[in-house]
Amino acid sequence: MQIEDTPKITLTPGWLAKEVLSFKEALALLDISASMLYKLTHQRAISFYKPNGKLIYFKKEDLLSWMLSNKQPSNDEVSSDFLNKLKS
Q1: Which of 69, 56, 70 is CA-nearest to residue 26?
Q2: How far apart are CA 4 and CA 2, in angstroms?
Q3: Phi-psi region of 31 (alpha: psi -120 to 50; beta: other; left: phi over 0)
Q4: How many CB atoms are located within 10 Å of the residue 85 CB?
Q5: DSSP string, the chain
Q6: Would you give per-residue pLDDT tens digits along the chain (88 residues)?
Q7: Which of 25, 29, 40, 76 could form a disulfide with 46 if both were Cys (CB 3.0 to 4.6 A apart)?
């Protein structure tokens, strides 16, 4: 099985300051393959916009929220929560 290399995307400086990102910019921000991003949009796992019915755009805040979803607490956080529950 061959691992597909994701080509490096050359973006203009300052693209991370934008609120709305193109498909290529979203790929760079998320650091995932194009097929993975298409899969996420197809499954409606991530919010996207198609103003003309063809090109896909993303709000940067939606992408960041998706990336930070389903947090896995550290062992220290679990221990701290457990001790706090014992005290109450």
Answers
A1: 56
A2: 6
A3: left
A4: 8
A5: -PPPPPPPPP--TTGGG-SEEEHHHHHHHHT--HHHHHHHHHTT-S--B-TTSSS-EEEHHHHHHHHT-S----HHHHHHHHHHHHH-
A6: 444 555 555 666 677 789 999 999 999 999 999 999 999 999 999 999 999 988 999 999 999 999 999 888 899 888 888 888 888 7
A7: 40
Task: Pull the structure tokens for residue 27.
Answer: 């790929």
Give the Cα separation of 58 and 49 in Å (integer).
6
The token duo for 80 is 């701290």
CA distance 4 to 59: 27
